[in-house]
Amino acid sequence: MSLITISGFPCSGKTRRAEQIKAALESRIQDAGFEGTKLKVAVLSDHILNISRDVYKDSRAEKPARGALFTAMQRQMGQDTILIVDGMNYIKGFRYQMYCAARELKLRVCTVYVVATQELCKEWNSKREDGTAYAPETLENLLMRYEEPSSMVRWDSPLITVPWVDDDVPADDIWKAITEGNVKPPNAGTQAVPKAPTDALRALESTTAAMVSAIMAEQAASASLGGLVALTMPNALRPTVTLPPRNVTLSELQRLKRQFVTVNKKAITLGTIEKGAMDWSEESIASKYAAYIEENLKP
Ligand code: ADP
Ligand code: MG
């Protein structure tokens, strides 16, 4: 049903805030006056996934750790769950990815920015007694690399900021964002008859595979690199996609295809619950995958 992304400096109080949010939401759900469907509040964090703080010493170790968090997140997101991702989530691109995954499932989202000064974070880190303190250099490095969320970009908004001086979290605002906030409508304009899920899964696989082949063929046949290309598909569709001005490799396209298929497979399965809410025509899949390629292919 929704995704709450926590973001903040290391040792700024994110886990404490995540616990406060969880408690506040659970009490609302359990409240006798609450009439919605039964919801579960789940929390994900490095700690829960057994990811050591040491991964942040080294960006080669950090990448798979981030991947593990993302995979776990995709697994737990769903219509009956409020998922709180308690992590630094300090990379703008990563927050964007999380937002896209949530949107594919039509979840409401909100970002909670936990704010404390760098001095306080250092102080709290040095006082940690549970053996989970960051090495001072790692902390310094993470503070420097932190990419602040902004309410101006769609993937960070609505953005709810919680400063360290506040005793509690603004539970009303958070509740509102995740229960009443906008859910982006499915891609309008190409509304076709909804297909059965097995058909949709087959269409998802075959359409994306055909597009990968078509892009490779187009690239091999064309003298210039990149730009807007119209793809020749086995069916009558002629989807267009804008490619970067360089040679795009098959493995890049296949990786994007796998990501796209994984995210959408889940959406299709959930789509059977809210029948007809989504459009899984080949045309719609083709245009969504083209947009996905454009957004995710490195320039
Ligand atoms: P994070 O999850 O961001 O690493 P934690 O919630 O684990 O941060 O908090 C880190 C440390 O800072 C803990 O020891 C906690 O008790 C302390 N702390 C967190 N928020 C505050 C606050 N607002 N005031 C005082 N101490 C705090
Ligand atoms: Mg924490």
UniProtKB/TrEMBL annotation:
It comes from the Eukaryota. GO terms for molecular function: ATP binding. Keywords: ATP-binding, Nucleotide-binding. Coiled coil: none annotated. The keyword ATP-binding applies. Belongs to the KTI12 family. This is Chromatin associated protein KTI12. It comes from Phlebiopsis gigantea (strain 11061_1 CR5-6) (White-rot fungus).
